[in-house]
Amino acid sequence: xxxxxxxxxxxxxxxxxxxxxxxxxxxxxxxxxxxxxxxxxxxxxxxxxxxxxxxxxxxxxxxxxxxxxxxxxxxxxxxxxxxxxxxxxxxxxxxxxxxxxxxxxxxxxxxxxxxxxxxxxxxxxxxxxxxxxxxxxxxxxxxxxxxxxxxxxxxxxxxxxxxxxxxxxxxxxxxxxxxxxxxxxxxxxxxxxxxxxxxxxxxxxxxxxxxxxxxxxxxxxxxxxxxxxxxxxxxxxxxxxxxxxxxxxxxxxxxxxxxxxx
Length: 262
Description:
8 helices; Macrophage Migration Inhibitory Factor; Trna Endonuclease, Chain: A, domain 1; 6-stranded mixed sheet; 32% helix; 262 residues
């Protein structure tokens, strides 16, 4: 018997009330963030993978599992697989009319996710909030944001280890008189801005908040704005991992080089 996984819990919450859009969004967020094991016809060849494809009345599907043990139990034999994140899988499959068969026959989260939902997930993951420079008339403490958004931001930024020193959520009044919110990163690493902006976008979207309701900014620790952010903002500390020598990337682990379907 395997433990209840994060996907199991999110799926149960979604099924409990089919009209709860927030629960449905949280399930898809868990799906995107989870490591999934894709059943293959043969061992991966470099960056090329050959997934098992299954045609049923509802369409064509690949089979994925959120635990190696679940894949083995379904297959009933040693079977080749590739470990990929849900977001990488969405990028591989989107536009090809192929859906996901998730944990079929082996878990409470068993579900056929149609190709249209895979396409929607990739499109959602590709959205990013506006990146802004210092064009604010005033900064103030953030107000009126739902708790579920703050929780989602905290969880999402906890996965962005080493990409920045910290982030501050502040309320802003723009020079034109408009008001909004800004998530400002301090000392973001070179090349990390797009990844951080996408992380914020996902937290917004999967919390049911419109992506345009929050801007993203990047500032150096020596910038005078950093002191204002610390004075008015809600601080999020990003984990700072110990430096490691990275091994060669397995297929699917580099989001810029997803595996190629054969």
